[in-house]
Amino acid sequence: MAGNQRVYKQRIRSTQTLQKVFKAMELIASARIGQARRNAHEASPYDHALSQAVAAVGTYGHLDHPVTRERKDTKRVAVVVVTSDRGMAGAYSATILRESERLLAQLVEDDREPVLFTFGRRAANYFAFRDRPVEYSWVGESDRPSDHSIEEIASVLLEYFLSPPEAGGVAEVHIVFTRFVSMVSQVPEVRRMLPLTVVDMRETTDLNRYVSLQEEAAKVWESQPLYEFEPDAEAVLDSLLTRYVRSRIRNALLQSAASELASRQQAMHTATDNAEDLITTYTRLANAARQGDITQEISEIVSGADALGAG
What we know:
This protein is an alpha/beta fold. It is built from six helices and five strands. The protein has a five-stranded mixed sheet, sandwiched between helices.
């Protein structure tokens, strides 16, 4: 029984050490989630203004631009998978990887050729372990994407979409990320980024089912202000649409960063509570073992005393 006490005490010490690590990670995530939420929220006004501008130009100009044209000259489709760099975030990365596998299977079924891009070390390791080639991989900034990385990702994806087939061009660009809803709700989402889909402004405007742009298009069509474009509507649209694509990619990465930190905070909070429960259980078992040792020692003393008295 004395051996059991040592085992339980060692487990208690190990669990207490892990509990401190879990608590520290929870506090770090809690401290950083506020800024991540603000970053995601503060990107909305810029997206809103771009949506309004695109809707206005589209209403008065011909919305014929390379990023809005459906490509039929290649079967290659770019898929960007956004996961975390580190673990201990619950099912955050696993959920995205499952969604990615479903999307890849659907593309193959539709006779398309997926081209993988990853953001986050977990996705890069996942596909590398399965010997699946990755065209580009970005790591180290999953919970705090920098403006430089966002600009680089947007530029690479636009370059692939606008390149001819012989240069490795792709017909579509999809991104699999996690949309931040609240601290307790993060939803995996598959969004087609390119080509941007645009329909008649008088009915509705839908850049890949982007709700805010629909609302702006309706407002623009109802008010119908008079615009003059310098140097011309085509040049303005060229600048706006590329900025809009970059803005949407930035929004997806910021949403994912906030979702990752929220998932990690929840996971570490649960792990801390589970460690406390485990320590309580081991403490009870150690006390039971100690009581068993004491009872055994008393029994041996009494048995020895009885034997001496009988002698």
